Amino acid sequence: MAKKTLDKAEALKQARASAATGSTAKPKKVTAAGRRSAGRITTVPLSQIVLDRYQPRPLLPFQGDLRSNFFSGKADWKKTAKEWLELAKSNAGVAKQVTDLLEMGKSINDLNQIEPATGAWIDSKSGEYKLLLSTGERRFWSLALTAVDNNKGEPQLEVQEIQPDELGLARQVVENESSKPLSAIGKARAIAGLVLEHIGNLPPELDRNSSNPPSDYEYYRGALDIEALIGSKYMPRGMWEKIGEIMRMERKYMVHHLNLLKLPEELQHIADQNDLTEFVLREIMTLPEPLWSKTITLAGKEGLSAQDIKRIKKSPGKKRAKVDSPASKAASRLKAFWKISKEISTAKDIELVATEFSAGLDKREILAGADTLEKLAQKLRLRAQ
């Protein structure tokens, strides 16, 4: 897709006019001297926004044709949101996802959008100018679902404009991690995408800009066959270090995450919806493949830990292995935190822990977490006495 920068003020003006009149006329191009600098924040109708199918955090469900119809242009945001709400009535995992997005949409409508999305104006394949979203897809769909659920008109998303040459996976990863950390599957896709970007000159079947582009599932799985891409079993020198700096992850953990892309597409989405950890998924993938679907679904439903999966594996003759209660799991994780916290010695370290804990949470969730920790501290002091 060509990425020619448009004059931002003119693009916004015409976007609003187009949304109001239904016009699809392409805006006039302007010279470089007439362009405004990136960074201004504006509101853009959802119909004027293009989503990045290859975003590390997959959001639209893979069930049915919902996802493929939207990204192929067969369904717009409104039709997709309607079908998504309908799908949630019969699918518990989708229902949880939709509930979270509706809560976000209500919060944005009630309190205004706290952080803008980011995106750049580009020429789309249809000949219209569109804003390609770099980050903020969750906010896009939260507004879409809320509007359809409440029978409202087309919403507008608050966006900070960037230049087309600023679009890139590294930026998406950094901005996503600062707002809501990626799941294990999201990190696997991000690592694979960075590998493919680093290699460049990809074969036609992995060309995202071709007339028949690969699905995001096919694209990211392409990173698993390095020998087919570069003719060697080994990654290019220095590549792991560069990607590790972006992902803040050691090489062996990046390899562990990449292996998750061997899961079938639908299982990846279930794992992502339920935010299953790499440790849990790695343990599940040691089971016979026919058991993956059942175990991933169970892990998502009951919040199984990697230790729970090991017990299931050791008890194949039993109907159900014993699963730790949420309280037991919380106690185990707090003990692990306590061991690590012995290395925390300065006020700056405590500030960092608080910042990392709060990342991706809203004010209500942060205060609820603080209340729970304060209650726990009181109980611990009683036991010490």
Descriptive report:
The chain has 2 domains: 8-173, no CATH class; 182-317, Arc Repressor Mutant, subunit A (Orthogonal Bundle), CATH 1.10.10. Helix content is 54%, strand content 7%. Strands 1-5-3-4-2 form a 5-stranded mixed sheet. Helix 7 (184-199) packs antiparallel against helix 10 (239-247) and helix 12 packs parallel to helix 14 (292-302). Strand 3 (117-123) and strand 4 form a beta hairpin. It has 385 residues and is of the alpha/beta class. It is globular and about 75 Å long. The protein has helices at residues 8-21, 66-71, 77-88, 92-111, 137-149, 169-179, 184-199, 216-221, 226-230, 239-247, 251-259, 265-273, 278-284, 292-302, 306-314, 326-341, 347-358, 363-384; strands spanning 41-45, 49-50, 117-123, 129-135, 156-161. It has 18 helices and 5 strands.
